[in-house]
Amino acid sequence: MPDASTASPTAPGWQEQARPPLLFRRFEFEDYARTRAFLDALNELSERTGLYPRNLSFAATHVNVTVDAEGEPLGEREREFTRQLDALAARGD
After folding, report:
1. Are residues 86 and 80 in contact, defined by beta-carbon separation less than 8 angstroms?
2. What is the count of structural domains for the chain?
3. In angstroms, rounded to a whole number, what is the distance separating the alpha carbons of residues 11 and 22?
4. Which of 6, 67, 73, 87 is deepest in the core (most CB within 10 A)?
5. Distance in angstroms (rounded) separating the CA atoms of residues 40 and 3
6. In a domain, 16, yes or no
7. Which domain covers residue 10, as residue numbers?
8. Cβ atoms 4, 16 nearer than 8 A
9. Domain membership flag for residue 57
10. Which are the contacts of 33, defined by CB distance < 8 A and separation ≥ 6?
11. Residue 18: which residues within 8 A CB-CB, separation 6 or more?
């Protein structure tokens, strides 16, 4: 990422970048079943909110998520999305 990242004040565990404005986090899971459940829940959240990650990559036990505001400054919508992702990951379905 071009600019130095700092922890987001509203979403612990997320890294915030100024240019371009985005939030990034890596989620770790115990096994593929939990990773898959998180990905399915992330899809449902995106469909419900209309906010889709800018970049999403995953392997058997982790998911990397990048959220942006389509070139605009990050707002409450993106921060609420990250809080909801944190809650989904904590559920551990």
Report:
1. no
2. 1
3. 13
4. 67
5. 31
6. yes
7. 6-91
8. no
9. yes
10. none
11. 3
Asked whether 42 and 88 are in contact (CB, 8 A), the reply is: yes
Could you tell me the two tokens for 26? 């890596």
93 within 8 A of 34, measured Cβ to Cβ: yes
Over the chain, what is the mean pLDDT? 88
Q: What's the rounded Cα separation, in Å, for the pair 33 and 93?
A: 8
Residue 87: which CATH number? Answer: 3.30.1360.20
Q: What is the largest CA-CA distance in the chain?
A: 36
State the pTM of this model.
Answer: 0.84
**C-alpha span between 41 and 32 (Å, rounded):** 14
Please choose, from the candidates 42, 57, 19, the residue with its C-alpha nearest in 3D space to the C-alpha of residue 89: 42
- Is 27 a member of any domain? yes
In a domain, 1, yes or no: no
